[in-house]
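Practice problem 4.
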């Protein structure tokens, strides 16, 4: 017997989420069907509220309920240093490091020649625009340590250095092939302290 059509539709949608395979999508679909109606309402409502209230910060492209986001709006931060990350989740991970007082820039991905993701597919032009408009003296490249993140860091460093801006890359401590998002606070803190000029 095939799955009922309504559940089939749910599975098809849920399996498109990152990290969710067909088996997990089926499990989640059957779980949601068994949930009390009030809980299902809360789930739907939380997704819709998040979609409606999230804004993209026009300075750093962080997701936030306000524009500028709280980090960019914080006048006590060092406006001359920006930490470039791939995703808003990476920004959250780095922001847990208390001794980093600079600002951020969210690229919205990483270069990937194999997947045909080029500079125009991420926010390279916007980053250069920010470098020109703000007095940035140092750019810390905190892209992931996998091959895409490394390619992106090398590309950006070559592009940025001619502007007379110091370009650094996070130092030792981060596992090779790792995602910044999942690194712990102490590791990121050490990696920032040990950053090397590119
Ligand atoms: Zn911002």
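Answer key:
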């Amino acid at each position: 017997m095939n799955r009922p059509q309504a559940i089939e539709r749910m599975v098809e949608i849920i399996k498109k989420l990152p990290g969710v395979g067909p088996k997990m999508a089926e499990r989640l679909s059957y779980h949601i069907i068994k949930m009390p109606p009030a809980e299902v309402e809360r789930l739907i409502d939380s997704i819709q509220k998040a979609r409606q209230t999230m804004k993209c910060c026009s300075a750093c492209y962080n997701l936030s309920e306000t524009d500028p986001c709280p980090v960019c709006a914080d006048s006590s931060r060092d406006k001359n240093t920006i930490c470039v990350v791939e995703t808003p989740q990476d920004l959250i991970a780095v922001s847990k490091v208390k001794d980093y007082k600079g600002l951020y820039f969210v690229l919205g991905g990483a270069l990937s020649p194999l997947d045909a993701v080029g500079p125009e597919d991420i926010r390279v032009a916007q980053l250069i625009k920010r470098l020109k408009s703000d007095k940035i003296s140092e750019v810390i490249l905190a892209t992931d340590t996998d091959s895409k993140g490394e390619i992106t860091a090398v590309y950006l460093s070559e592009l940025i250095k001619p502007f007379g801006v110091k370009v650094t890359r996070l130092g030792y401590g981060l596992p090779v092939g790792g995602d910044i998002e999942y690194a712990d606070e102490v590791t990121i803190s050490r990696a920032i302290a040990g950053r090397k000029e590119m």
